[in-house]
């Protein structure tokens, strides 16, 4: 099975976990998060609203370099059961970590820092779990950043996306950190440049403030969009966003 394939455009709710609670950061800055309660309750809310996939992030893991919310994430996996796609990032640094997660209910693992520091990890995981690796390219001011969005790499997002596709990435998660969590809109051109660089699906993230933003990302060629703050703040419903995308 090609785990990273999207048969049609998806709106994917984010369940970002910090200290065991759902948190949405502003511009990727630690300490800026607004809390939205229990991850299991959030996951149930989104699956009840029609989500086909959930985007899970261990925020503490992203900053500290090792998974810190395994219990909370595990509870979400157990609660949603089969039939819902699950992609997880944050603190996954080794192939063994990834293999373990993929064998226990996660469909796709999201690698950011690990993929930058050790590109061959993508091929290693893909060998045993084809299509399961999503490489996360987080961009600030046009540059890929790692280690919880704190360190620049000098990499251009589009060039990096093509490189990781060649190593076996099943999809690219492109997050524009400059607009993350601010409800001020997306940077469509940045997404288009990454989409044009690869043939694998591109999952867009960052800045979605309206249903129009969702539609624009579909029109830009993204295969899916991850939405966090806008959904939690009630700017629009998941059903509204998915319906608008389906009609576009």
Please give a structural write-up.
38% of the residues lie in helices and 26% in strands. The protein is globular. By secondary structure, it is α/β, with parallel strands linked by helices. It has an eight-stranded parallel β-barrel, surrounded by eight helices. Helix 9 links the parallel strand 11 and strand 12 (224-227). Helix 1 (39-48) runs parallel beside helix 3 (70-80), helix 7 runs parallel beside helix 8 and helix 9 (211-219) runs parallel beside helix 11 (238-247). It has one domain: Alpha-Beta Barrel (TIM Barrel).
Pick out the low-confidence regions: none
CATH architect. name: Alpha-Beta Barrel
Strand order of the largest sheet: 1-4-5-6-7-10-11-12
Annotation, overall tally of beta strands: 12
CATH fold label: TIM Barrel
Average the pLDDT over all residues and give the rounded result: 88
Major beta sheet summary? 8 strands, parallel, barrel
The CATH class label is Alpha Beta
Helix content: 25-40%
Number of structural domains: 1
Strand residue percentage: 25-35%
Instruction: Give the overall silhouette.
Output: globular
CATH superfamily: Aldolase class I
Provide a count of the helices. 11
Radius of gyration equals: 16 Å
Please outline what is shown here.
The protein has 248 residues and is α/β, with parallel strands linked by helices. It has 11 helices and 12 strands.
């Amino acid at each position: 099975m090609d785990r990273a394939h999207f048969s049609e455009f998806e709106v994917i709710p984010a369940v970002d976990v910090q200290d065991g609670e759902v948190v949405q950061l502003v511009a990727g800055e630690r300490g800026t998060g607004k809390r939205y309660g229990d991850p299991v309750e959030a996951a149930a809310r989104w699956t009840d609203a029609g989500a086909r996939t959930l985007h899970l992030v261990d925020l503490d893991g992203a900053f500290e370099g090792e998974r810190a919310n395994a219990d909370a994430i595990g509870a979400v996996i157990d609660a949603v059961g089969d039939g819902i796609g699950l992609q997880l990032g944050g603190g996954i640094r080794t192939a063994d970590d990834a293999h373990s997660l993929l064998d226990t209910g996660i469909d796709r693992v999201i690698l950011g820092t690990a993929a930058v520091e050790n590109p061959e990890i993508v091929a290693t995981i893909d060998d045993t779990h084809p299509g399961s690796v999503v490489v996360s390219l987080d961009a600030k001011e046009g540059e890929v950043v790692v280690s919880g969005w704190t360190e620049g790499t000098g990499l251009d997002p589009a060039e990096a996306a093509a490189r990781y596709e060649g190593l076996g990435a099943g999809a690219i998660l492109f997050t524009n950190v400059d607009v993350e969590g601010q409800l001020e809109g997306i940077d469509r051109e940045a997404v288009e440049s990454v989409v044009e660089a690869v043939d694998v699906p591109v999952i867009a993230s960052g800045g979605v403030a309206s249903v129009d933003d969702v539609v624009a990302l579909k029109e830009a060629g993204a295969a899916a969009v991850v939405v966090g703050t806008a959904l939690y703040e009630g700017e629009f419903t998941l059903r509204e966003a998915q319906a608008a995308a389906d009609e576009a």
